[in-house]
Amino acid sequence: MEPDQWLAQYGQKIEEAKRNAVQAENRLGGVGGSATSGDGLVTVVVNASGALTDLILRPALRGEDPERISSSIMTTLAKAQREAAGQVVEIMTEFVGEGDALEFVKSKMPNGYSGDGTDPEEPQPEIQRRDTRPDDDYFTNPPEVMG
């Protein structure tokens, strides 16, 4: 291969890498996460790096133990950060693929990331837990109540 041809190919690879970097940066700019505490009294929003961008505390928290409020904020914040980190990992997987670079990104997520296999199972909403069988089926084959 001639030096001029090699240099042209190298220049094309650099331009492609720049385009990919700009595209990744644009996609990552829209990443964020949010979570609400189980009791619905604390809501947090974070950006792609996991930094807190919004904190909503409901009036029902007035008079609550400050340690309980702090714990609720921190737990909810970690959930939002895991959500945002999951989006970052998903985007980076598209750009760098599986391998050492992606493992490095994953290792820098302070609370892990959604989809890392450590997420607690969310309980099904009450509407999905209801037994919606017709009454005849329900009473013919009732659910086991006592185990």
From TrEMBL:
<feature type="compositionally biased region" description="Basic and acidic residues">
    <location>
        <begin position="127"/>
        <end position="136"/>
    </location>
</feature>
<protein>
    <submittedName>
        <fullName>DNA-binding protein YbaB</fullName>
    </submittedName>
</protein>
<feature type="region of interest" description="Disordered">
    <location>
        <begin position="107"/>
        <end position="147"/>
    </location>
</feature>
<dbReference type="GO" id="GO:0003677">
    <property type="term" value="F:DNA binding"/>
</dbReference>
<dbReference type="InterPro" id="IPR004401">
    <property type="entry name" value="YbaB/EbfC"/>
</dbReference>
<dbReference type="Pfam" id="PF02575">
    <property type="entry name" value="YbaB_DNA_bd"/>
</dbReference>
<keyword id="KW-0238">DNA-binding</keyword>
<dbReference type="InterPro" id="IPR036894">
    <property type="entry name" value="YbaB-like_sf"/>
</dbReference>
